[in-house]
Write a structure and sequence with these properties.
DNA binding; Arc Repressor Mutant, subunit A; 149 residues; mainly alpha
């Protein structure tokens, strides 16, 4: 069933919730000094009572020195729109070319905004419904164990 989320027998209880500025500073200084290595060992070596996943996400989404914050410049926005027109919504490809953000968050936000502005008539059914030849019928998807012929 996996590891206990808050420490096992003889293990200190792992902290959850908001990060304190002291914890941020410990993690930031540790990674700058020693690098990442193995994320599961980072909290122990940095003196934190957090899990490795929590440290990894905190570093990638908030503490990285090369992380861009704030609004898009007009040049970045034009670049992302041009990529979207060429490539469509293939996120993997746009992540490699578009400006960096927390795990592609910056370009993903813009792509979502573009899709919200799209006219509803241009949207299509989800792929899983098309692939299985399923159709919508009276609030559910027909052909999936509804018990009705």
């Amino acid at each position: 069933m996996g590891r206990p989320s808050s420490g096992g027998v003889g293990q200190p209880k792992l902290r959850k919730g908001l990060w304190s500025p002291e914890e941020d500073e410990k993690l930031y200084n540790h990674i700058l000094r020693y690098g990442v290595g193995c994320w599961s060992s980072v909290p122990r070596l940095a003196g934190l009572h957090r899990c490795g996943k929590s440290c990894r996400l905190r570093w990638l989404n908030y503490l990285r020195p090369d992380l861009k914050r704030g609004t898009f410049s007009q040049e970045e926005e034009d670049h992302i729109v041009a990529l979207h027109q060429i490539l469509g919504n293939r996120q993997v490809v746009t992540d490699r070319v578009a400006p960096a953000g927390p795990d592609g968050q910056r370009d993903q936000e813009l792509l979502e905004q573009l899709h919200q502005e799209e006219a509803p008539a241009t949207r299509h059914r989800p792929r899983h419904a098309q692939a299985h030849g399923l159709r919508r019928s009276h609030g559910g998807i027909a052909g999936r164990g509804s018990g009705r012929p």
